[in-house]
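Chapter review. Work through the record for M20/M25/M40 family metallo-hydrolase before attempting the end-of-chapter questions.
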Amino acid sequence: MDLSAARDYAREAMPRLLEDHATLVGHPSVAFPGYPREPMDAIAQDLLEMFRRNGVADVELLDIPGGYPAIHAVVPGPEGSPTVTMYAHYDVQPCPSSQQWHSDPWVATRKDDGRIYGRGTADCKAGVIAILGTMGAFDGTPPCTVRLLLEGEEETFSHIEDWVAANPEMVRSDAFIICDSGPSKVGVPSITSGLRGDVAFTVTLTTLDNAVHSGLFGGAAPDALVGMIQLLSTMHDQDGNTVIEGLHSFEWEGADVDEAEFAASAGAKDGVGLQGTGPLASRLWSRPSATVIGLDMVPVDQCSNALVPSVRARISVRIAPGADMAQELETVMEHLRRHAPYGATLEFSDDKAGSPFLGDTSGPITATALAALEEVYGSTPAQVGSGGSIPLVTELLHASPGAEAILWGPEDEEKAKIHGPDESVDPAEIERIMLAQIRFLTELGARSSG
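Structure tokens for M20/M25/M40 family metallo-hydrolase:
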């Protein structure tokens, strides 16, 4: 399908696709433990029906042991054509009331700026819709063999990496399209060539058998809360750089990031500077970044004049592309052991590790993808990184030696606000990525048949 025909298809299909997008957003498909299963089951059934309407007759629910099912199908292309697996996920982040949304997060709301607001509008139901529209363009007869793989628990404790490791033949492909990323801003084409990984764990610091009077014992008895503050502060220098000894790091060689635009996108308050030093792209994409994402202690409205005997913290460290996740996890834990104040007892639990990704952008499949982006957008694509993690990418490539992974999507970093309040997507980006995927599959199929 040439670009002109693809654009004609998109003009006709986009209104229907945006209706389907709104239906998906209406499902509070949170896969985190403790959330109801019914919305997950309901959205899965809707997805089956949507893909069947778009030419994927044999789409099915694929059982993922221990987790929610994946939406799966194999749509054969011409004999001898490459196999392309197209991935996105249909689960979303929770929406706690503390986020203070300006519209109902479970209603796709089109606002005056043209963007569609709601949880998952960008991450990753926009990617799902871009894949749905791509399949609809070929109505069951794609120019390549296409495998569909839509995960149901990417945002939480995913089980699909274990399934891939146990069933590599089920995902073996020549190329993977991971439609769960996006450009720096709307209308700027890009491919994500590096993803940071993530290692996370809970650390409990204990100093006393029980709480004691802060007047009688304060100043000498070791307070666990003060100790935890001291311990956590050792992970950063005074500029906010992560300084855990031994973590993998390098300087990013691709496109840089405009600091003023980034600060505005992050919602930095007037007069508050950015954290860290050096090129912003390196800080975001190729250096480690330690974050305290949870801290259990006495709430202010329940506090008393007492020293705290024990405190828990949840630590997440984004690790640089190319790093070994098990080694990085142990490096962080060892850093904390060495810096434990007063000889405090440290206990580690609930550790989790996700692989980083560093792509080889010199291959022919990546070249085809870049050409498709340039044709659709009318400008040269940038090769960017992402501080986010998609651990599945590394596992997919392990299952398919020699394959290439293309990471792109409609989630612009400037305004999408994924995982936060007022998440949104520009529908024009959904259309552009859909068009790029149509052209990519067309050219990949033509190259193999030629």
